[in-house]
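Hi all, long-time lurker, first post. I run a small reading group and we've been trying to get comfortable going from sequence to structure in the token notation. Rather than ask abstract questions, I figured I'd post a concrete chain and ask someone more experienced to write out its structure so we can walk through it together at our next meeting. Sequence below, copied exactly:
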Amino acid sequence: MPHQKVAVAAVCSLFGFFGFSIYAVAMELSVECSYPVGEATSAGLIFVSGQVQSVVYIILLQALTKQLTESPLATCGDVVLSWKVPMMVMAGLSTVFTCCFLIFFHTRYRRLEAEEQAAYRTGRNNATTTSYQAVET
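-- Answer (accepted) --
Happy to help. Here is the structure in token form:
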């Protein structure tokens, strides 16, 4: 266990690398889903929701830990805790929420639809203006 610093650093780096790349996709999806609402408002609500969820998860998962017998490898205090059950609970919650998202989340892309309608109206107006200019000359 004490010689896993490189493995932990590699896993954290990979998680950060892929998590950072999905951040832009999630923000774009939030803007698409809440189109009449401003981009800053939807992003702010997502940040607040994430902070509230993290507090709830920290409290819940810490409550699920079990104290292990005394270990000579303990370097972070005098109590050694088992995080096996909280890790399994978090993995289960992540799986359930991901499945629910994939199954039930089907949204209209309202912002894209509005942009297409605006482009269609602009194209129609330009075509009408061009035909009037051709008749006048």
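A couple of things your group might point at:
Residues 5-130 form one domain.
The mean pLDDT is 83.
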